[in-house]
Amino acid sequence: MLGNTQTQNAATRRMTLATALFLTTTALVSLMSPPAVAQTGAASTSAQSFAISARPLGEALLLFSHQTHLQITSQGPMLTGRRSTAVSGHFTPSEALTRLLSGTGLTFRSEAGGAIQIVPASANITLDPVRVGGTLAHQDPTGPGVGYVADTTMAGTKTNTPITEIPNSIYVITKQQMVDQQPQNITDALRYTPGIYAEAYGGGSTGAAGSINGNIFQRGFKAWQFVDGLMTHSASAGETTFLERIEAVNGPASVMYGQVTPGGMIGMSLKKPTDTPLHQVSVGFGNWGRYEATADLSDKITKSGNLRYRVSAIGVTQGTQVNYVDYHRVGVLPSITWDIDPKTSLTLMGMYMYTPGDGSNGTGLPAIGTRFTDDMPRISRSTFVGEPNWNQSGEKDAMFEYQFKHEFKKYINFSQTFRWEDTKFDNLNAYYDSNVSPGVVALHGWANHISGTQEALDTRLFGEFNTGSVQHTWVTGSDFRNYSYNDLTESDNTSHPILNVYNPEYEYEPCYSLISASCRTFHFMPRSSYFQEGIYFQDQIKWKNLSIILGGRQDWAHQSSSIPDSYNFNGVTGSDPATKTSQTDKAFTWRGGIVYNTKFGLHPYFSYSTSFIPQTGETNYLGQPFSPLTGKQSEAGLKYKVPDRDILLTTSAFDIVENHYLIEDMVHTNFEKDAGTVKSRGFEVSANANITKSLKVVASYTFEDVRFGKSTNTDRIYYPLTNSKGAYVSEQGKFVPYIPRNMFNVFADYTFRNSLLSGFGVNGGVRYVGFTYSDNVESYKVPSYFLFDIGAHYDFGSAVPMLRGLKAQLAISNLTNKYYASGCNTRLCYLGQGRRVYGNLTYNW
Fold it and tell me: What residue stretches are annotated with the Secretin/TonB short N-terminal domain (predicted)?
C-alpha cells in the first residue's frame, strides 16, 4: 500500500515538474523572442517531422514547443494528470498538436502574435470552429465534429484516422448539422448524405419508427445500423436525441464489422460524458400536435473530474400526417465515465425507451389515386388504410453498454465494447391486401408480438510501431453477436373487409381465436437464433506521402429456426409439425487501398474490398434459407482538404457486384426470392464546408446505375390502370426498383454577426430525387421530385446578456407541401412526408 502511494506521489511530482518546466519555458520564449514566434506561427502550415511518444501532457507540450519554436500557454492545473497521445510522422504543427491533445479533453486556439493557448474542449456543440493558422483544431473521432466538418473518424478503420487517409467514402453528419436541420429520426438525418436513399418506403412516419435495417438503401443495397461499432436490432437505438454523430461508410465494410452488404453501413455514436460541464434543456412544438421536451446534462462527479456523468432524456407526443397514427415516446440514456488512471478508462451506459405509438403507418396506398390520378381523384395523404380500434404499433427497448480502454504503451493498447439489448415489439395491423375496384381495397388482419435479445462484444488490440521510415498503425480483434427472438404472428383469414379509400368506414372486428367456430385463423410462432463470430486484422501503413490499408477477416455464422403453427378453420383446429431450418456459413473477406497525400491537400485513392452477410431469418416460400450475400467493390476517388480552410471535398467512382440479391416474390406474397447478381455502378460528389465563421454548407450529387445482372428470373409486366398483367419478361438488365439514378441536395446555414441582425440565422436546403421503377421488370416509373427545406434560429444572448444561453429555432421540411410518392411496387405507393413544422426553445448554462 505504501509502495503504491509512493509510486503515485512520484508520478504526480514528475507531472507537476513537467508542467512547471513547460510553463517556465514557454514564458521565457514569450519574453525573449516574440518576433521569431510570430514568424513561425505564420508558417505553421508547413509540414515537418515529429516523434513524440505518449507521456505526461506537460512534457509532451514542452517537446512540441522546442521542435516548432511556437509559444504555447496554459493554466498549470489543466495539464495535471493528463497524458498525451503519441505523435510520429510528417505533419503540420497544428496537425501534430491536434493528435497530441487527442483524448485529453483539451484543445487549442490562436492568440495575438501567433501564440497558442491550451484550453478545455467545449461541450457546447454550437460553438464555431477553432483554428490555429487557419487549420481546424482537434476533433474527437466519435464526437460531434465542428460545424459541418469532421476531419477524423473511427468508423472506417476502428482507429483514430483522418478521413482523408482512408481509401473509401465516409460521410459524417455532425451534431451541428442535426441541430440545424432538426431531424426527428435517422431517415430524416440521412437526407443530405451522398449515396443514400432514405425514404424508399415513405416519409410519412414522423416518429423514430422502426429500425433502419432494411429500410434505407446505400449505393443500391440495404443499409445496416451499427451503434458504437456494434450491429443492433433495436428499433429505438437511433433516437437522434441520444446521438453525437452519424457516419455513412459507403462500400463494403465487412473486414471491420462482419455482416455488411456491399453498399456499406450506418454508424452512430451515442452521447457520453463530456470533459467540460454541459447543461441543456429544451421544449419543442410542431404541427400534427407535436410537443417535446429534452434534457442533456453532463458534469463532474469527483473534484478531479476523473468520474463524470451524463444523462440525456426525451419525452414526446404527437400525431402524424396519417389519421389515427400517433407517436409517443419517453426515453432516458444515462452514462458514467471513470478515468481509472491516466491510461485506463471505463464508460458505462444504459438506455430505456418506451414507445407506445411509434408513428409508423405500416402500409402504402393504391397506385391508382396516388401515382395515377388522370381518371381518379387523388387520395389524401391523411387517409388511413386500416382499423383505428385495432391498428397499434409500439415497442419497449432496454440496453446496457460498456466501453473499456487501456494503454499498455505506445506499441500496444486494448479496447473492448459490449452491449446487451432487449426489445419487445407489438404490431396489430389491418393492412392493404388487394384492389377490389378503383378506390376500393380489401384489408387483411395480422398481429405480431416479437421479443428479442442480443449480446454483442468487440475486443481489439491496437498500436503503432515503425520499421525504418515506414510507420504502422495496426489493429487485430475479435467480435461476436448472439441474437435470438420469438415471434407470435397471427393471421386473420375469417374475412377481408372492404374499404373505400375516399370515404372510409371502419368496421373491422378481428377474429384470432383458435377455438371459435366463427374464426378462420393461423398462428405462426417462429423461434430463431443467430450467432456470429469473426476475427480481423488490419495494418495502416504510412511511407512518405503514401497511406496504405491492408486488412482481412474470417467470419463464422450459424442460424437456426423452428416454426410451429396451429390453425382454426371454423371450429376445426389442428397444428402442423414445426418446420426447422439450420444453416452454417463462413467466409473470408479482405480489403486493400492506397492514398497519395499531397502537400497541398489533395488525396487521390483507390481501394478494393469484399463483403459477406448471411441472410438472417430469410427463407423462400418453401421455407428454404437463402445463400449468403457476397459482394465486391472497386472504388477510386479524390479527397481534397482545402489548405487553411475547414472545407472537405470528396468525389468517388465505384463498381459493385453482389451475388444472391433478394427481391420481392411477386407470385408468393410476403416472401422473397434470389435475384442472382446485381451490379451497382456510379459516382458521388460531396462537400462539407465551414466556409466562414458565419456560413456552413453541405452538398452532394449521386449517380447510381443499379441493375440485375446474371439472372434466370422472369416476371410479368403489371398494368395498374387495368389491374392486369402482360407477358413474362426477363429481369436481366432491368433497373432494381426503389433506387433513384440521380440525387442532388444542398443545405446551407448563415448566421449574422456584428450587425443589427447579430445572433439571427437562417438556413435552407434543396433535395432532388430522380425517378425510380415500380418492380423488377420496370412496369412503370415513379416520378422524380424536388423538395425544399428552410429554417431560422435566434440567439437571445446576442442582444440581451441576461438571456445568454437561450436560443429559439424553427425548421420546416417540404416547404411547398409537395405531394409525392417516394417509392411504389406493382399495386402500392408509399407517400412522402408533407410539410412538417418544428420549433424549439433551448437553454444552455
Answer: 70-121
- H or E segment to which residue 59 belongs: helix 57-68
Helix (H) or strand (E) holding 5: helix 2-32
Distance of CA 248 to the CA centre of its chain: 6
Contact by Cβ (8 Å): 26, 18: no
**Separation between Cα atoms, residue 477 and residue 231, nearest integer Å:** 16
Shared domain for 786 and 752, answered yes or no, is yes
Query: How do residues 410-423 score in pLDDT, each as one tens digit?
Result: 789 999 999 999 99
124: left (phi over 0), alpha (psi -120 to 50) or beta: beta
Q: What is the CATH number for 215?
A: 2.170.130.10
What are the φ and ψ backbone dihedral angles of 368, each rounded to 5 degrees?
-75, 110
How far apart (Å, rounded) are the C-alpha atoms in residues 279 and 125? Answer: 12
Q: What are the grid coordinates assigned to 559, written together?
A: 442460424
- Which of 422, 484, 542 has the alpha carbon at shortest distance from 159? 542
pLDDT at position 621 is 64
Given a contact cutoff of 8 angstroms between Cβ atoms, the answer to whether 630 and 648 are in contact is: no
Q: Could you tell me if 233 and 94 lie in one domain?
A: no
Other beta carbons less than 10 A from residue 446's beta carbon? 20
HEC states along 259-279?
Answer: ECCCCEEEEEEECCCCCCCEE
Whether residue 691 is found in the same domain as residue 816: yes
> Which residues neighbour 449 within 8 Å (Cβ) at sequence distance 6 or greater?
425, 426, 427, 487, 488
DSSP code, position 740: -
Cell 463532474 belongs to which residue?
A: 300
Please answer whether residues 696 and 148 qualify as being in contact, where contact means their C-beta atoms are separated by less than 8 angstroms.
yes
Query: Which stretches of 164-227 are DSSP H helices?
Result: 175-181, 186-189
- Of the candidates 427, 422, 482, the one whose C-alpha atom is nearest the C-alpha of residue 456 is 482
Q: Are 136 and 146 in contact (CB under 8 A)?
A: yes
* Residue 122: alpha-carbon gap to chain centroid: 23
Cα–Cα dist 41/45, whole Å: 8
145 domain residue, yes or no: no
Amino acid at 812: I
Domain tally for the chain? Answer: 3
451 close to 483: Cβ distance less than 8 angstroms: no
pLDDT (tens digit, 9 = 90+) per residue, 211-265?
A: 455 678 999 998 888 999 999 877 667 789 999 999 999 999 999 998 888 999 9
3-state secondary structure 678-691: EEEEEEEEEEEEEC
Torsion of CA 83, 87, 91, 97, to 10 degrees: 0
Is the pLDDT assigned to residue 459 strictly greater than 80?
yes
Beta strands in 468-596 (DSSP E): 470-492, 498-500, 520-524, 527-543, 546-569, 572-596
d(CA 483, CA 28): 61
Q: CA–CA separation, 563 vs 525, rounded Å?
A: 6
For the four alpha carbons of 20, 21, 25 and 26, in that order, the dihedral sign comes to: negative
pTM for this one?
0.83
Report the 3 state secondary structure along 777-788.
CCCCEECCEEEE
| Phi, psi (rounded to 5 degrees) for 78 | -65, -30
- Do the beta carbons of residue 157 and residue 540 sit within 8 Å? yes
731-746 residue pLDDT tens: 899 999 999 999 999 9
121 CB-near residues (< 8 Å, 6+ apart): 105, 106, 107, 138, 140, 275, 276
- 240 with 302, same domain: the answer is no
Q: Residue 796: what are its φ and ψ, rounded to 5°?
A: -65, -25
Q: What are phi and psi of 12, to 5 degrees?
A: -65, -40
Provide the β-strand partners of residue 602.
Answer: 640
